[in-house]
Amino acid sequence: MRIVLVGPPGAGKGTQAAFLAKNLSIPHISTGDLFRANISQGTELGKQAKAYMDAGNLVPDEVTIGMAKDRMSQRDAEKGFLLDGFPRNVSQAEALDETLKAEGMKLDAVLDLEVPEDEVVKRIAGRRVCRKDSSHVFHVTYSPAKQEGVCDACGGELYQRDDDSEETVRKRLEVYHTQTEPIIDYYRNQGLLITISALGKVDEVTKRAMDALSRESA
To answer: What are the start and end residues of every segment in region (NMP) (predicted)?
Structure first.
């Protein structure tokens, strides 16, 4: 299957993408991984992306599209892929359609993970990270530390990253509503959109997604 995964920040896209890709035996292609791989390998697209990023500018659509196109052409993606973080706007969605059409392919489904805005803020703003080891992550509601402000694993101080403040989260949501949310209507008009609730435990959301995709491919 060829799937695009969409949803607001905090919807759990990265987590669900990893599980879904494994269950479907297709590669998980994320924008972040594309950038890191191209930059570390010193590809021409990676050099272009790095120049924009170093200057504090957004990477142009054509560079992102070029990276995605190259990744989708690799052998492990012949039978399908799951795109996470791309397309990010309607122009990227249109470019993806053109790229697939040129290769005689098309998307099978666009999975929209739906989460209420207040829940997004609660999920992200509640995160606390260990200053000693950033892989130790807690949540004030869902997975609190035994002692407030202290990491269970190493005793380090727990803090809220600037990116996780409520103000920053709401700004990120504004960007999502303005730039990315329009692709939901774009794909709905193509009859590709599947919307599921991303509330609940991770495995419950994964099962919900797999059931919806199975019905779509039946």
So the answer is: 30-59
Within 73-146, where are the H helices? 90-102, 117-125
Report the alpha-carbon distance of residue 90 to residue 64 in Å, rounded. 13
- d(CA 127, CA 144) in angstroms, rounded, equals 9
d(C-alpha 121, C-alpha 22), whole Å: 28
Q: Beta strands 109-114 and 193-197: pairing type?
A: parallel
List domains and CATH numbers for the chain: 2-217 (3.40.50.300)
Q: Cite the annotated binding site by residue number.
A: 10-15, 31, 36, 57-59, 85-88, 92, 127, 137-138, 161, 172, 200
What order do you get walking across the sheet with 81-84 strand by strand?
Answer: 28-30, 81-84, 2-6, 109-114, 193-197
Q: Residue 175: CB partners within 8 Å, gap ≥ 6?
A: none
CA-nearest of 1, 49, 43, 42 to 24 is: 1
Q: At what angle do helices 44-54 and 31-41 cross, to 10 degrees?
A: 110
Decide if 99 contacts 67 (C-beta within 8 A): no
Q: What is the pLDDT of residues 52-102, one digit of tens each?
A: 999 888 889 999 999 999 999 999 999 999 999 999 999 999 999 999 999
**Which residue numbers are catalytic?**
13, 88, 127, 161, 172
